[in-house]
């Protein structure tokens, strides 16, 4: 997946825990770059998870359609109309 690393940067306002920011600044010289990298990983993982979920739904629908095509729908036996 990834993202356009050449895209322009823009300022955003965020509210973060002051102690956490202080500790992070002690670990990384570039907090913005670190947050951007972590956010990119988070977005990639979330998109992959959503994509996998959609594939699972499509597989379940296909399996159900195949079952109904082979055996018919259970509801067909109880149709009172």
Write the layout of secondary structure elements.
Elements: H1 18-27, H2 31-71
- Helical proportion, percent range: 55-70%
Kindly give the count of domains. 1
- State the separation between the terminal residues, measured CA to CA: 51 Å
Question: What fraction of residues sit in β-strands?
Answer: under 5%
Mean pLDDT: 93
Structural class: mainly alpha
Care to describe what's here?
- The protein is mostly helical and 81 residues long.
- The chain has one domain (18-78).
- 63% of the residues lie in helices and 0% in strands.
- It is built from two helices and no strands.
- It has helices at 18-27, 31-71.
- The protein is elongated.
- The N and C termini lie far apart (51 Å).
- The model has no long low-confidence stretch (mean pLDDT 93).
How is this structure best summarized?
With 81 residues, this protein is mainly α. Helices cover 63% and strands 0% of the residues. The radius of gyration is 24 Å and the shape is elongated.
Features:
81 residues, mainly alpha
């Amino acid at each position: 997946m990834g993202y356009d690393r050449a895209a322009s940067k823009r300022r955003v306002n965020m509210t973060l825990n002051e102690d956490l920011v202080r500790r992070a600044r002690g670990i990384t010289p570039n907090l913005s770059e670190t947050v951007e990298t972590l956010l990119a990983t988070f977005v990639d993982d979330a998109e992959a998870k959503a994509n996998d979920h959609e594939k699972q739904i499509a597989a379940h629908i296909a399996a159900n359609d195949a079952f109904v095509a082979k055996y018919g729908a259970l509801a067909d036996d109880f149709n009172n109309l």
